[in-house]
């Protein structure tokens, strides 16, 4: 008796799963063309191979992870009333403005994802994870 190992399912996003299901259940050329357009719009061979493998081997859906946001700051010393904090905030999408205050501010314009912290090279500063319920 030979054992056949079941192929590993591919992890896909909900949008990718919807498009795969639309192809599998296609009843017209237009639905197949819609899938081909979905694939063509990505123009990434790794993406195409992963989607084709999901069609062949099956797939599981992963929900998009909620990307934790962080306050980025540095304690820069004190005065007679307490210490000052130098805190990063958005000036515009690719530029950071540094705000000086006596406390950490928690507005949306002060929050950065890990990817943004890395891209903007803010790694040498302290970070504090924040959630929406901390406002």
Structural overview:
Helix 1 runs antiparallel to helix 2. It contains 4 helices and 7 strands; from the N terminus they run E-H-H-H-E-E-E-E-E-H-E. The model has no long low-confidence stretch (mean pLDDT 84). By secondary structure, the chain is of the alpha+beta class.
Brief rundown of the structure:
The protein contains four helices and seven strands; from the N terminus they run βαααβββββαβ. With 135 residues, it is α+β, with helices and mostly antiparallel strands.
- SS elements, strand count: 7
What is the percentage of strand-forming residues?
25-35%
- Report Rg: 23 Å
Class based on secondary structure composition and strand pairing: alpha+beta
Poorly predicted tracts of residues: none
Write the layout of secondary structure elements.
Blueprint: E1 10-12, H1 14-24, H2 29-42, H3 45-57, E2 59-61, E3 69-79, E4 82-92, E5 95-101, E6 111-113, H4 114-119, E7 126-130
Helix pairs in contact: 1-2
What characteristics describe this protein?
two-stranded parallel sheet, alpha+beta, 4 helices, single chain
